[in-house]
Amino acid sequence: MSLSSVLNTAQSSLTNTSRQTSVVSRNITNAYNTDYTRRQAVLASTAPGARVVSITRAADAALMRQNSDALSVWHAQNTLMTGFERLSLSVNGVDNATSPAMRMGELQTALQTYSASPGDRSLAVNVVNSAGDIVRALNGGTQAIQQLRTDADVEIKQSVDKLNSLLADLEKINTDVMTATRLGRDASESLDLRDGVVKQISELVPVTTQLRGDNDMVIFTKDGVTLFETVARKATFEPSPMLLAGQQGSQVYIDGVPLAAGQGGDTDAGGSIAGLLQLRDSVAPQMQSQLDALANALVEQFRQGTGDDGLFTWADPAGELRASTIVVNDLYKTDPTAVRDGTTGTLNPDANSGFTGEITRLMDAFDADRTFAADGGIEGATTLSTYASASISWLENLRQLSSTATEKKSATLARTSEALSNKTGVNIDDELAKLLELEQSYAASAKLMQVANDMLSTLMATVR
Length: 464
Known about the structure:
This protein has two domains: 3-57 and 426-463, no CATH class; 65-415, no CATH class. The chain is built from eleven helices and eleven strands. The protein has helices at residues 3-29, 61-92, 100-116, 121-183, 188-204, 272-301, 330-334, 338-341, 357-365, 384-424, 428-463; strands spanning 39-45, 50-57, 207-211, 217-221, 226-229, 231-232, 235-236, 253-254, 257-258, 312-314, 326-328. The strands form four sheets. Strands 3-4-5-6 form a four-stranded antiparallel sheet. A three-stranded antiparallel sheet has the order 7-8-9. It has a two-stranded antiparallel ribbon with strand order 1-2. The chain is rod-shaped, with a radius of gyration of 36 Å. It starts with a helix and ends with a helix. The mean pLDDT is 89.
């Protein structure tokens, strides 16, 4: 081997070692960056020596797609689960202690106690107070449900704005990737950024991706609607200032196509936006329908034997007859003994203090057969008591189903994230081992340079 060949080989080795060390150092620096994909310097033989011809990423499209799908369904399920927890606490209270069903049970107890001593005015007051607790539970439940719907509407708007912002960022990053690919430059940084943006988008809506020439990426929703192709498509949404009972919320459109909401406790939705739509347009309205049905049943079942409004009535009989407008009849607040005698004086004309006929009728009202509308999602309930209990069961069953699904989808997300990390992430131990190998290679190259330098010095000394 000639002296020039030795020098060229040593120089090539030092250059390669320098580039490889730079790649390994970058890997170690980004070891805890979940959006970073491990790099590797690719060597090719040359004459003499070898050289770094490219920097590759340890990307895995299949694992990336699985992780993106898992991320999307978990965010939808977690959004729904959070809504169920909020509804359970705000409408029914801790351990259902302030639920309409529990308040009705307290009213039944108050009526039973009063029936044993119908001449005791204080017991009549307790009945009216218990009725007031039911009214507050129904009014407050309605307010909590509508506030959840309004908050969900605000979150949908924020999520849609974020989606549009991410798509705009993706447009710029995708252009950088294509430009670098065409010019033969290292596009690793831009590819990492693009993958990170796609993951953030999948948290909002479920996506599928497709790569074309020059690493150009196209993104679709799971329904096949184009989210991004060369340029970003527009997601639109018109928020409502305040969603009232019975009022429909606006739809989310992606490139002019409506985004479908999820269904079921183990939701089939993907992305937090679909989960929020399900809460706002399905879960909350159904629960509101249940409260409205209870309010209507209370007013109708508790009418006096004369047909006049009884213990419960409407704040505005000409307005909407909903849980938000039910009130305790003022006549009963003024004279609590109306629970026993009625308000017209015809039920107990002699004002008999031992009269229990009306009290007994009110107690029986809880178990009297009636028909409930199907829009509340409760089937088989035929009495006021069973419907009130079924309302709690309906929400708790959905919450339990959602909780189980959340745990399952969380485990799937953890497994896919781990698999992706093992394949594309950085293992510090491996990188440090490579760094030691490169250090040894550098030392060998430096030694070769030293030998060449000594040979050259000897040669020059001989010539002189």
